[in-house]
Design goal:
133 residues; Rossmann fold; 2 domains; globular
Length: 133
């Protein structure tokens, strides 16, 4: 815990610009992302700790959900940026769609931060999915 509270914020600050660029690539980082978009909040020690806890939970609980994808009985939609550098559109988008029957939409030349770079497209996609429920 000591390292999380002492080093995680420092490392976050030192890698801030690169991390933001990766998250938004191939698009530019939104001008107000650090403050209004919560980007700087992600650099806090508490954010690091909570993210680490989430990752551990995901690792240990994955076996209880993997293979049960077909049990989902509701319309599922996945909106992906083709050039996402965080999640691979083929591995995470196409594979998930195959496993669940999810409607997959891949936006050409877009990255990971679609709600901030393409808010209208995201809103339209959500409304379309709501109409299917």
């Amino acid at each position: 815990m000591f390292l999380a509270y002492t080093l995680s914020s420092l490392i976050g600050i030192l890698t801030r610009e690169k991390s933001f660029k990766i998250a938004f690539s191939p698009e530019p980082v939104c001008d107000n992302f650090a403050i209004k978009g919560g980007g700087d909040f992600a650099l806090s020690s508490n954010s690091f700790i909570k993210t680490s806890e989430d990752l551990l939970f995901a690792i240990f609980s994955a076996s209880s959900v993997v293979g049960r994808e077909k049990e989902l009985k509701l319309p599922i939609g996945v909106l992906f940026g083709e050039k996402d550098e965080i999640l691979d559109a083929k591995l995470h988008g196409e594979k998930f769609s195959e496993l669940t029957g999810a409607e997959l939409t891949i936006l050409p030349n877009k990255g990971h931060m679609l709600p901030l770079t393409e808010p209208e497209v995201c809103a339209d996609f959500i409304h379309q999915m709501i109409q299917k429920t």
